[in-house]
Amino acid sequence: MRVVVDRLSKAYGYVWALKDITLELRPGECVALLGPNGAGKTTLLKLLSALLAPTQGEITLDGERLQTNSPRLRSLVGFLSPQDHVYDGLTASENLRLFTSLYGKGKNRAETEKHLEIVGLKNWADQYVGSLSTDMKCRLIIAKWLLLEPRLMLLDEPYGVLDGSGVGLLESYLRNLTSGGGVALIATHHVQRALRLCSRAIILDHGRLIFDEPKQEPWESFQRAFENFAPREERWNY
Amino acid sequence: MELLRQTAWLLWKDLLLELRRRESLLAMFFFGVLLLFVFNFAFEIPREKAAEMAAGLLWLAFIFTGTLGLAQLYQAERENHCLEALLLSPVDRGALYLAKVSFNLLLMLPVEMVVFPLFWMLFNLEAWNLLLPLFLVAFLGTIGFCAVGTLFSAVTLRARARELLLPLVIFPLMIPLILATIRAMEIVLRTGGFEEASSWLRLLIGFDVIFLTAGFLIFEWVIEA
Amino acid sequence: MAWAEKQKGRRGRMILGGLALVFILAGLYFALIQAPPDAYQGEVQRIMYLHIPSILTAYLSFFIVFVGSSLFLWKREKRDDILAYAGAEIGVLFTGLTIVEGSIWGKPTWGVWWTWDARLTLTAILLLIFVGYLMLRSLIEDEDRSAVCGAVLGIIGFLDIPLIHMSVYWWRTLHQAPSILRPDKLPWENVHPSMLIALSINFLAFLLLYFYFLSLRIHVGEMQEEVKRIKLYGVV
Asked: How close, in Å, is residue C67 to chain A by CA atoms?
C-alpha cells in the first residue's frame, strides 16, 4: 500500500484545519502522527479514510484517487478509535459477524470466535459490548480489524485504554501489517510508546506539517521540533 | 445481490437492537393510543360520525407517531460513532437507505395493526370486515411516509432544532400522501371497495415509487457522520 | 472578480432595474386607468393584473430553485447554489405577495379572507416548502452541507409539485360546489383588448422586477463568497 498526499487542505467555514499537507507513506512504514490538540491529526485521519472530503488537494492510494465514493478503496482502509465503531447493544460476536459481512468478508461463528480468542476475549463472545470494559472494547476492535484485513491502518489515540498485554497485541498486529507491505499511521500523545514501534515521525501544528523525518539516532532535530509541544510529563527521553 | 445482502444485514442489526431495547416500538405504540384519546376529547366524536372521521383521525395519529419514530431512526448510530463505522465500510449508501426505510416501516406497521382495531373498539364501530382493505391503504401510505421521512431524517441529522425542523420540512412534501391516503380510506369505508378510490391509489403508488427511487439515489450525498 | 466584470454586472443590474421600473409604472397605468372595470366583479378585479403575474413568478422561482439545486449537485459549483438560494428567498417574497393579493381580492368577492380553493391552497403549500427550504439552510451550520441538503430539498420539492397539484385539485373538485364566480378563468378568453394589454405589460413588469431582485440577491451571495475566499486564501 502506497499513500500519496498532495497539497491536502481542509477548511471549516473561515478557518483552515489543515493546509497544504504533502507527504508520502511507503509500503511497510509505521508512522507516528504527533502534535498538540487541535493540530489537525484527527482531521488528517478522517480525510485519509474518506470520511471527509478535502477542500483542496488529493489523496491517492496505490495510484487510485480516493473519493468519498470509492467503496473498493474504503475496504482497504481501517480506522481504529478505541471505544468507537462497535454497537453496544450487540454481542462481541455479533459485531464481528456484522462488520465482516458488510465488508464482504462474511465469517461464520467459528472464525469470529477464533479471533476473539486471539485477542483474549474468548469468554466474552456472547456478552453485550456495552458491558465490556474499555480495554476489552479496544481488543474487540483489534479483532475486528484483524478480520477485515485493511492495507492502510489509521489509529486515533490507541494507547490510552490498553493495558500492557493489550498494547503488545496491538503492536504485534501492526508489525504483521507493515511486514506484509501495509501502512500504519498512529495519531497519539504517547510519544515514547509510539516511537518504540514507529520508523518515522510526522508533526502537525495548527494544520501545517512542520516535521517529517525517519527515525534516526541521535535525533536532535526531532527533539528540537518536539520541545515546543511536549507536555512536561511526555518529554521524550532518548 | 450484494445490495440486498448488505441491506439485509443492516436491517438485521437494527431489528436486533430494537428488539433488545424496545425503545422506539413501545413508545410509538403508546403515543399512538394516547393521540386517539386526545382526539376524542378534542373533537367530540359522536358514534354516527366516527366512521366518517376515522380515516382522518387515524392517519393523523400515524403521521404524528411516525414523526416521533423518525427522530429515533438513527439512534443506534449515534452511540460510539457507529455511523462513521458504516460510512467507513464499503457498504452502498443506498443499502443503508433501504435498510432504514424498511426498519421504519417495520416499526410503524405493528403500531398501525394494533391501533386500527383499538380505534374500532374505542368508538364502537362495526365494519370489522373493512379493516383489512383499510390497512392495505394505510400500508401504501406508510411506505411513502418512510421513504420521505428516512431521507430527511438524515438531512436534518445534525441540524439545530432538529425535532422542529424535520416536520416543518416533510409535512408540506407529504400533503399528496396525506390527501390520497385519507380519501382512499374514506372511500373504502363508505363503499366497501377500492373501485372509486382507484385514482387516489394510483397517486399513492406513484408517490411511493417516485420518492423511494429519489431517496435511494440521493441518499449518498446526504448521509454524513 | 475582476473590476471590469464587476462594473458590467452593476450596469446590467441598473438597466434591469430601470426597465422594471418603467414597465411597472406603465403596467400600473394600464391596469388602474386604461383598462375598463370588469362587468361582474367591478374595480376589485383589477388586482388580477398583479395577482396572475405574481403567481407565475412564484412558480418560475420554484423552477429556478430546482435548476440551481440540480446543477449544484451535479457540478458542485458555488454559483449554482447561490442561484438556488436567491431563487428561494425571492420566491418567498413573490409567493407571499401572491397569497396576500389573492386574499385582498377574495374579501370583497367571496366575502371571506381565505378559502381553500385549489389555487390558493397550492400557492400556500409552495410558500411552506420555500420557508422549509430557508429554515433548513439556516439551521444547518456547516455551509457545504447546508448547500447540499438545500439542493436535495429543492429537487425533491420540485418533483413533488405535480403530485401536490393533482391531489389538491382532485380534493377540491370532489368537494366544492361549482361557484358562479370563477377566479381561475383566464382573462384572455373573450376579453376587452385593453385588459389583455394591461395584463401583458404587468406580466412583463413582474418578470423584470423578479429578475432584478434575483440579480441583486445573487450579487449579495457572490460578495459573501468573495469574503469567504479572501478570509481563506488572502487577497489576490
From this structure: 24
Q: Which residue does chain B place closest to A105, by CA atoms?
A: B90
Q: What is the pLDDT of residue C182?
A: 46
In a domain, A160, yes or no: yes
Say yes or no: C142 contacts chain A, CB-CB below 8 A. yes
**Joined grid coordinates for residue C196:** 389583455
CB contact under 8 A, B17 and A72: no
Q: Three-class SS of residue A208? A: strand
Query: Nearest 5°: phi and psi at B60?
Result: -60, -45
SS3 content of chain B, % helix, strand, coil (to 5): 85, 0, 15
Q: Which residues on adjacent β-strands are paired with residue C158?
A: none
Q: How many domains does chain B have?
A: 1
Give the list of residues 6+ apart from residue C224 with CB closer than 8 angstroms, or none.
none
Cβ pair B214:C159 closer than 8 A: yes
CATH of the domain at A93: 3.40.50.300
Nearest CA in chain C to A53: C144
Query: CB distance from C227 to chain B under 8 Å?
Result: no
Q: Where are chain C's structural domains?
A: 19-35+47-177+192-233
| Distance separating alpha carbons of residues B202 and A88, to the nearest angstrom | 43
Whether A182 and A198 have beta carbons less than 8 Å apart is answered as no
The whole domain housing A87 covers 75-198
* pTM for the whole structure: 0.90
Mind telling me how many Å the CA of A14 is from chain C's nearest CA?
6
**pLDDT tens sequence across C102-137:** 888 888 877 888 888 888 899 999 999 999 999 999
In a domain, A194, yes or no: yes
Predicted confidence (pLDDT) per residue in C43-80, tens digit: 777 788 888 889 899 999 999 999 999 999 999 999 99
Cα–Cα dist B176/B139, whole Å? 15
- Please write the tens of the pLDDT for every residue from B154-176: 999 989 999 999 999 999 999 99
* Residue-number span of the structural domain to which B20 is assigned: 2-222
Q: Angle C129-C130-C132 (CA atoms, 0-180°, nearest 5)? A: 60
Q: State yes or no: pLDDT of A36 exceeds 90.
A: no
The reply to whether B169 touches chain C by the CB within 8 Å rule is yes
Q: Quick one: how far is CA A62 from the chain centroid?
A: 18
Among the partner-chain residues A81, A83, A104, the one whose CB lies closest to the CB of B90 is A104
For C224, the closest chain A residue by CA position comes to: A14
A-C interface: how many C-beta pairs under 8 angstroms?
8
Considering only alpha carbons, which residue of chain A is nearest residue B220?
A69
ipTM: 0.90
A14:C232 CB<8 A: yes
Q: For chain A, what is the domain count?
A: 1
**Dihedral of the CA atoms C74, C80, C84, C86 (nearest 10)?**
170
